[in-house]
Amino acid sequence: MITAPTTRPSGDTTSAAGLRATARILARTDAHGTTRLPVLDGSGPFALRRLGFPGPQARVCMVGAMSAPLGGDRLAVEVTAETGAQLQLTAAAATVALPGRTGDAATYDVRLTVGDGARLDWLPEPLICAAGSDLWMTTTVELAPTARLVLREEQVLGRAGERTGRLHSRLTVRRAGRTLLDQETAYGPGVPGWDTSAVLGGHRAIGQLFVVRPEFEEAEQRVRLLGGAAPERPDAGGGQGVLTPLTGPAALATAVAPDALRLRTVLDEAARHLPG
To answer: What does this protein do (predicted)?
Structure first.
């Protein structure tokens, strides 16, 4: 974990250049077991599109309607999958954090709530931190005791051939009120040691796959090296990672790679090794 300045921009900060926008999604099952979407509301850069036909699992794609987040923006996504609902969220393209007209940082807060017997797959495309950007991102997940979660998070530091912006990220996952995971990272200008061999070692793409399933409590799990870190994969193309069981019915894969494509390859490998 990289220590970073802890002064997060306030949501009440007024910025003439900043945008305030929230996307809200609510998934609920009907009497036939079909997952419906009574709330599907996006504003600003968030255009929400239903995918496919009604069925046991609802699918939503987030489409960027404008460039965001820019410096000074305050963005949020609030997703609730109620008891028994099944919901998958994807994105049409990567999110690119850009500098704004002022030196203000942007914030992007994701809040996910999953009820008993419900499943949420949070599978956005990568977040790219362009040169000059400054983004504070938080993801907070609240799970009921029998909830299921698949959460993929991918971050790319800089576009091709450019330096990275600054990224401060925190992921907190709680199950039945108890913390499963709480981690905080920071990268980019002004963050000491972020690009040393002890942290990224020159890599520019980092990501993780976090999976919670009640059946993991009975499954046998072990630490597994992924990609180029695994002895049986010396030709993995530069991406490497580790898949680790956590206390509670959860598993976490963490990976680094030279680019987003090779990062996704390592995370897909992790998914194939999960129990069941």
So the answer is: Required for maturation of urease via the functional incorporation of the urease nickel metallocenter.
